[in-house]
Every structure is written in C-alpha cells, then in structure tokens.
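F.,

This is the one I mentioned.
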C-alpha cells in the first residue's frame, strides 16, 4: 500500500509542479561553446588534434574495425548478426555528438555528409513503435526490457544527446526525431501507473532534460524526474537470469534526495548527479541540491585523486571506502573525469562558488586530457597515478566509452569558460580567444577577449567590449591553487573584493583591459594523512597542472625522492612533447625531471610516478 500511495502522490505532483517553474533556478547561465572562439597555445592544439586525429580514429573504428555501424545496417535490414557488446550503440551516438560539436564551430561538408550517412542507418534501425537498440533488434526483441542493467535507456540517452546536438549544429531533425520517438515509446511502457524501472547505467535522465529544453515538452522533464524518484524503493532488478542487483553499485540503496555518500560505479554516479542537478534546476522542491552538496563533500574531500580523477577500484570501476586511493591500481576512468567536469560545472552554476570551478579545471587539465595521446589516435580507459611501464594507451577498447567520450568533450570545452547571471559576467577558465554573447541586461552584447599562455603562465589579459548599460559586475575566478595574485584595470592596480573565490570588478566600460597576474610557483603537495597510499610521499604541482616523473627522463628512477631541500626550476622545452614547461629539480646533487601528468606515456615505455617518496630529514 505504501508504494501505491507514493505513486499516486507522485503522479499528481508530476502533472502540475514541473509547470510552476519555467525558468531555471541556476544562478549562472552557461555561455555556449558556439559563442566562444578559442585561440591559444594550449586548447587550440587540443581542438586541432580532435578534428585531425580523434574524430577520424573514432570514425574508422566504428565503421571499419568493430562492427558498430554494421549493427545499425543489419538492424535496418532486420537481418544479420549483432557483433560486440549490448551497449555498443552508445559509442556511435557519442561520436556523432562529437561530430555535431565540431560542425557547430568548424563547418565541414565531408564530415556532415558522413554524419548524415550514419544517421540514415540509425533512422532505418528504428522500429515502428519507436524502439531502437541494435542488440535486441538482432538478438531477440522478446528479451527487451527484461534486465535493467542492459543499458537500453543508457543508449537511448546518448541517442537523444546526439540528436539535440546535431539539430543545434545543422538544423536537421532526423536524429532528434529518432531520439524523441524513442523517448515517447519508453513513456508508453514506463511511468506512473505503468512499469517500474531503474536504469542500471544512468544517462537518460540528463538527456531527457535536454530533450525538454529543445522541444519545450514538459513530459520529458516529468519522465526524467520520475526515473530519478524510482531509485531507492526496491524496484531494481537484473531480471530472472541476470544475477544479484547490488543497490550500492547501481545507486539504488536509498531515494536520491537522501544520498550522502558516493558508492558503486563512478561514471554512473556522475551521470546520476548531473541528471539530479538538471532536474533540480527546473523542479526546485526536489531536495536534490542538498543531496548534491553532501555528495560533493564526500567525493572531493574523501574520494578524489590529486588529478581530479575518481574511482579507485577496477573491481567495480568505482569506490570502496573513504580515503582508499591507491596509485598503481587507481582506476580513474577517463569518462569519470569528464563526468567530474560536467557535474562540477552544474554545481558552479547553482552556487557561483569557485570551488566547483577549481575541481572542474583540475579534472580538465589532468584527468580528462590524459585520456588521449599527444597524436590523438590512442586512448587511456584507466588513468593510474603510478605505472611499472606496462600501462599504455590503446587505439580502441572492447568497451570503448572513453574514446567516444573524448570525441564529444574536446570540441565543447568552450562551454566551461564563461557564465552570465542577473548581476554579473563570470570568467571561470583562462583560455585564450574571444567570446561574444548576450547578457539579457540591455545594451550591446558583451565581447570578451582573453590573451594568455595559461596553464604555462599565470598572466591573463581580459578585454571587455560592448555590454553598455548592463550594470553587471565582472567576476574573475581566483583559482584555489593560487596564493598570490594582482589585478589591474587599464594599467592601474586595484584591490577587488573577493566573493566565493571570485575577484569582483564592480564597474567596467567598453574597452577596459583587466590583467590578472597569478604567481605560479612549483609546489610540493601532501595528501590527507588518512590516505595511506600517499603516506610519506609528495606530489609536484604547478598552477592547475599535476606533474609526474617518467623513467625515460630519470634513469635513476628507483632512487627518486623529494625533501625539504629540493630546489625546483621551470624550463621552457619547445621541442619536448609538443612544447611544454618542464620542471627540473635538484636534491643533494641529484637531478630530476618532471613533465605534466596528462602527457605521460607518449614516449619510450617506462615507469611513472606522481607521488614520490619524501624524506623530511634529508639534507644537502
């Protein structure tokens, strides 16, 4: 009777409450990456690599090497075999999303034609009732929706995200319509007074909110909320032959608004928290935001690596117990680091607190881009903080979520640079280029130009144009790693107030030039003493970058150590790893070389360390 009562109340609320708040309750609105033209020595290289290597690598694997596209061709014909794993459709959708984001800022007729070809096969694979999943179409439709961990809704979520992205980039609706039809079909099977369902791998929840955003149809927001509320009530099941449903692994132990501790699979957690945040922004009475704050404390303060990576265990691709952060065995899936960017970006939008942007930046510069090689054609699934010389990037994986994840993250990195609120324009990341966007405050659009050699240098010149009569402040993030900094406006030093980690420039006019100059020394960092894996060790960091020692630079690798007497220097190395700042260290006459962590394993195979032994009593 309790569950029947809950469903009745929930159904009544869903018919009215979501319609009470048409505006998002987020403090900060995202400036879309399509309004941000990136032009700097760091991220422009990443974007060029994406276009010339990452996307072609994903396309080649999907078409020629793995059978993923052939699955859609076979499903369109309603005959043939399915190859690969039951969730492989999602890799095609994520690669398509990456293609869409690339097209949005770099029109390319050949790439668009390839995307259209793929979309034709996908549309052909959709059944008359709206269902689409090549695994079940080719292996037996009688088994669909029998196992909540078979990723049917996960694949549908990535389909919807790709459809929204491609529609926004090209104006073409075919893929969006396929995703919308799948959503409509699922809503005939699941929902109040229908079947219960707890998606084993979250993703559909945030995708449905995107579908609501582009269509304006609130039924998709309602469905996202309903799916979130299904968790923690005993509905999860792996089906009659699927084994035991672990409530912790699947984030199904308690209702989501009661969550306080992260558990289970790291990527699934990230997508869940993003979905909760997206729904909470539009349905403010959920209680989700309070839960997200509790979860953030647990993730960041007790379960996050110095690289911004999360997930310490290969056993569950996720979490064990607080402060269990081994280095050699660290999992730190690339997808989970991308998830940290997505989630922390949303948390920053809710609060305007720089601590979330700090974690977002940390994950971006360390845990995410480490997932792709310098050339862009090989990928890490797992990102350990120590290696014995046997861990290397691969061209592809049987479970290839990480390469396709990188393909959609890199071209959309401009999403995280700027934000706009009712009273301010926010500068969250220091990336060279120009952004032009409306502020909804009247007058001209704001045009912001950044010039910087970040992350190698801490000086950022910001020029603001337009925006007359907006009355908005300019808020510039002071990173948590930064101890000393100065700000000047048109050449005159100022002493701005700091609010939630942002330097506030209260009055500015078109043409103003603001210079933020951040001191960027090399630092030795110690871990929380409860992290036993790092006891008696130190890591090396400079600005947002975590550094590591590779055996190829340090032949006496086994004897590497740090002490209070270690002296560091920074050296420009234009011919090393595409051009970097390398850190040299000397201690008792011994020299050491450190490179940015994200670039390790791009040269000769060998051992690697982030955390080095520390000898507090060592003297020169």
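My design for it:
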């Amino acid at each position: 009777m309790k569950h029947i009562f809950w469903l009745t109340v929930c159904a009544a609320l869903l018919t009215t409450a979501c319609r009470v708040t048409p505006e998002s309750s987020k403090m900060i609105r995202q400036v879309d990456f399509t309004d941000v033209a990136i032009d700097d020595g760091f991220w422009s290289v990443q974007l060029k690599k994406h276009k010339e290597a990452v996307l072609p690598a994903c396309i080649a694997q999907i078409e020629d090497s793995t059978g993923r596209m052939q699955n859609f061709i076979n499903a369109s014909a309603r005959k043939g075999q399915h190859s690969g794993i039951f969730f492989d459709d999602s890799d095609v959708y994520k690669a398509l999303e990456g293609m869409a984001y690339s097209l949005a800022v770099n029109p390319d007729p050949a790439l668009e034609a390839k995307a259209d070809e793929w979309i034709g096969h996908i549309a052909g694979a959709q059944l008359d009732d709206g269902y689409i999943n090549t695994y079940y179409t080719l292996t037996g439709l009688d088994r669909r929706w029998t196992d909540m961990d078979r990723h049917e809704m996960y694949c549908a979520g990535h389909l919807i995200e790709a459809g929204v992205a491609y529609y926004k980039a090209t104006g073409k609706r075919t893929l969006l319509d396929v995703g919308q039809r799948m959503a409509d079909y699922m809503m005939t099977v699941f929902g109040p007074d229908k079947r219960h369902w707890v998606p084993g791998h979250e993703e559909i929840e945030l995708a449905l909110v995107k579908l609501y955003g582009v269509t304006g149809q609130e039924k998709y927001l309602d469905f996202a909320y309903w799916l979130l509320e299904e968790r923690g009530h005993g509905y999860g099941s792996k089906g009659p032959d699927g084994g035991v449903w672990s409530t912790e692994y699947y984030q199904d132990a308690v209702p989501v608004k009661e969550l306080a501790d992260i558990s289970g699979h790291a990527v699934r957690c990230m997508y869940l928290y993003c979905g909760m945040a997206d729904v909470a922004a539009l349905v403010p009475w959920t209680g989700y935001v309070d839960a997200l704050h509790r979860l953030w404390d647990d993730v960041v303060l007790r379960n996050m690596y110095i690289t911004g990576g999360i997930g310490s265990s290969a056993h569950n691709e996720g979490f064990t117990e607080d402060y269990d952060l081994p280095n050699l065995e660290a999992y730190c899936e690339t997808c989970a680091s991308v998830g940290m960017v997505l989630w922390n970006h949303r948390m920053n939008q809710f609060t305007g607190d720089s601590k979330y942007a700090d974690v977002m930046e940390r994950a971006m510069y360390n845990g995410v881009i480490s997932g792709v090689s310098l050339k862009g054609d090989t990928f890490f699934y797992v990102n350990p903080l120590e290696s014995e010389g046997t861990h290397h990037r691969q061209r592809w994986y049987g479970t290839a979520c990480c390469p396709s994840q990188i393909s959609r993250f890199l071209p959309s990195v401009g999403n995280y640079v700027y934000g706009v609120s009712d009273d301010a324009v926010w500068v969250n990341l220091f990336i060279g280029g120009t952004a032009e966007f409306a502020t909804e405050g009247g007058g001209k659009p704001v045009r912001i130009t950044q010039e910087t050699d970040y992350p190698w240098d801490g000086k950022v010149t910001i020029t603001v144009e337009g925006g007359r009569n907006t009355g908005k402040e300019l808020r510039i993030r002071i990173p948590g790693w930064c101890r000393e900094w100065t700000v000047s406006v048109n050449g005159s030093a100022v002493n701005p107030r700091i609010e939630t980690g942002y330097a506030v420039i209260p009055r500015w006019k078109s043409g103003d030039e603001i210079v933020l100059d951040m001191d960027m020394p090399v630092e030795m960092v110690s871990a929380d003493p409860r992290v036993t894996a790092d006891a008696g060790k130190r890591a090396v960091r400079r600005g947002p970058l975590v550094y590591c020692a590779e055996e190829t630079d340090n032949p006496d690798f086994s004897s590497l150590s740090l002490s209070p007497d270690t002296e560091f220097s920074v050296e420009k190395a234009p011919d090393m790893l595409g051009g970097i700042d390398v850190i040299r260290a000397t201690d008792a006459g011994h020299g050491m070389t450190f490179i940015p962590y994200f670039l390790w394993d791009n040269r000769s195979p060998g051992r690697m360390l982030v955390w080095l032994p520390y000898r507090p009593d060592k003297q020169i």
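DSSP finds 15 helices and 22 strands in the chain.

Talk soon.
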